[in-house]
Amino acid sequence: MNFILKLRHWQVFLILLLASLTSNFTWENHDLFNLALNTFGLILYFFWYFVVGLELTEHLPPRVELSRTLFIVNAFVLVFSIIIIVIAFDGHFSSNGFVGFLWVAYMMYAMFQFMFYPSKALRTIELKSEATIGQYFSYFLLIIFWPIGIWWIQPKLNEIETASKMR
User: Fold this and answer.
1) SS in 3 state form for 62-92?
2) Distance between CA atoms of 74 and 106, rounded to whole angstroms?
3) What's the confidence (pLDDT) of residue 71?
4) Residue 164: other Cβ atoms inside 10 A
5) What pTM value is reported for the model?
6) What is the full DSSP assignment across 82-122?
7) Which stretches of the chain drop beneath a pLDDT of 70?
8) What letter does residue 61 receive in the DSSP assignment?
9) Which pLDDT value is given to residue 123?
10) What is the reported pLDDT for 109?
11) Distance between CA 24 and CA 141 in Å, rounded?
């Protein structure tokens, strides 16, 4: 999945824009089509974050280990939970009770960890040592606000790809 590091910023922007638009598209009286299109958009949207996190793990400096397993588990829990909400609750989930609260609380944790992981991995690669939260928090904000952040994050990913080719 090395291709994700080779994409230009405008290509990633268009892919994420398409994913965002399809995940919010609604066509009257076509529930199954809407469900399929919304699910496709959600999966496509989260795919970039997931692949970037996995690819950056391969480029981490020696002796630096980030919890890749937790990242993968949280990614799948997050995507499947969102798909369940879209399918079972028609996109409108209300947490009634303690179990619903725990599910929502874990989903929030999973979402933050899902966004923090690529941020920390990218900054760790740049610093060649494990980054602290103060060092990678700006990347976290850029990843959250992807329409703007993608123009800064993707060129850094391109640099990592170029540097790995030279080795």
Assistant:
1) CCCCCCHHHHHHHHHHHHHHHHHHHHHCCCC
2) 9
3) 92
4) 14
5) 0.80
6) HHHHHHHSTT-----SHHHHHHHHHHHHHHHHHHHHHHHHH
7) 1-2, 89-95, 165-167
8) P
9) 92
10) 92
11) 23
